[in-house]
Amino acid sequence: MMPVLVLLHLAGVIVWVGGMFFAHYCLRPVAAAQLQPAQRLPLLAGVLGRFFGAVEVAVGTILGSGFAMMLVVSFKNALLHWHVMMATGLVMAGVFVYIDAVLYRRLAAAVAAEDWPAGGAAMERIRKLVAFNLHLGIATILIATLGAYFGRGL
Ligand code: HEM
């Protein structure tokens, strides 16, 4: 059972963290340099709408498989770095829910109304929180993998 759960867990992590890396370091800087708000914001709203739909599935899969693995070994036997991963993973999930449910809706509404200043403000907050989650995600991957070098966890 564990290998299947690790596979699902890592598939979700690859989609989520890999997608944030692409959006933050590749797509957004080029869109910002080459496009005016009236072109850039509808493009980013469209791309992020598709990406966030995939991330909803990925986050559900990561949390479901992560908690299932914790239950398989039981929480009291789980290694320290697994508990740290669970804590940082839950922070990331909370930040994503805020981006998806509040900020993305604000961006989509501003784009629909062609209100570019409001859209730009929503996009800037999304950018900062995606950057936060991306770097916390990279730290979580380091903890999840290298934590094993430290005996019973970190
Ligand atoms: C509530 C959230 C989470 C829980 C409960 C959880 C739990 C777990 C557990 C129990 C394992 C198995 C460890 C092993 O067999 O060595 C694991 C593996 C892993 N997790 Fe998580 N996890 C969570 C979120 C995350 C997140 C958000 C990331 C990355 C952004 C992540 C990255 C990884 C990686 C890379 C592994 C593979 C480690 C390895 O096999 O060396 N996890 N997770």
Estimated share of beta-strand residues: under 5%
> What value does the average pLDDT take?
96
Shape: elongated
What is the helical fraction, as a range of percent? over 70%
Count of extended strands: 0
Model description:
The protein has helices spanning 2-34, 37-73, 80-112, 116-146. By secondary structure, the protein is mainly alpha-helical. It has one domain (2-149). The model has no long low-confidence stretch (mean pLDDT 96). Bound molecules: protoporphyrin IX containing FE.
SSE blueprint and pairings:
Elements: H1 2-34, H2 37-73, H3 80-112, H4 116-146
The protein binds protoporphyrin IX containing FE (HEM).
Can you give keywords for this protein?
154 residues, binds protoporphyrin IX containing FE, 87% helix
Question: How is this structure best summarized?
Answer:
With 154 residues, this protein is mainly α. It contains four helices and no strands. The chain has one domain.
